[in-house]
Amino acid sequence: MDIDELRTRIKSFSELENNWDSYGAEKITKQSITTALHMLSPFFYRALSINKPISVFPMRDGGIQFEIGDYKEIEILDHEINEIDFDSESNIINRVNSTWGEDATELPI
């Protein structure tokens, strides 16, 4: 996916309602979408620089998950950003938690 397709996909998560997966998933939060859109460029260019594909998915808890290649996941829930690195056997080898502090009053265009 190119960066515009990823941006469009992230924005489409705002249309998901509670129980969007029919297993009780929460609606994707406005703040998660705002944070994901803000962080999209750095994540995309990081993936591009190491020649890895990037994908983005809604999460059941109202957050958004990026996958970069086979061994990195970035989970966003509201202001929280969790970067998780895995080894080839899916064991967590590194986890970095951070926050992004701009409140979402409306979705970015």
Your description of this structure?
With 109 residues, this protein is of the alpha+beta class. It has one domain (3-99). Helix content is 28%, strand content 28%. The protein contains 2 helices and 5 strands, in the order H-H-E-E-E-E-E. It has helices at residues 3-12, 30-49, and strands at residues 54-58, 64-68, 72-77, 80-86, 92-99. A 5-stranded antiparallel sheet has the order 1-2-3-4-5, covered by helices on one side. Helix 1 packs antiparallel against helix 2. It is globular and about 35 Å long. The model has no long low-confidence stretch (mean pLDDT 89).
Number of domains: 1
Main beta-sheet strand count, sense and barrel state? 5 strands, antiparallel
| Class inferred from helices and paired strands | alpha+beta
* Number of extended strands: 5
Uncertain spans: none
Q: Give me the strand/helix succession.
A: HHEEEEE
Rounded to the nearest angstrom, the distance between the terminal CA atoms is 20 Å
What best-fitting shape do the alpha-carbon axes yield?
A: globular
Mean pLDDT: 89
Task: Estimate the helix proportion, in percent.
Answer: 25-40%
Strand content: 25-35%
Rg over CA atoms, rounded to whole Å, is 14 Å
Q: What is the tally of helical segments?
A: 2
Strand order of the largest sheet: 1-2-3-4-5
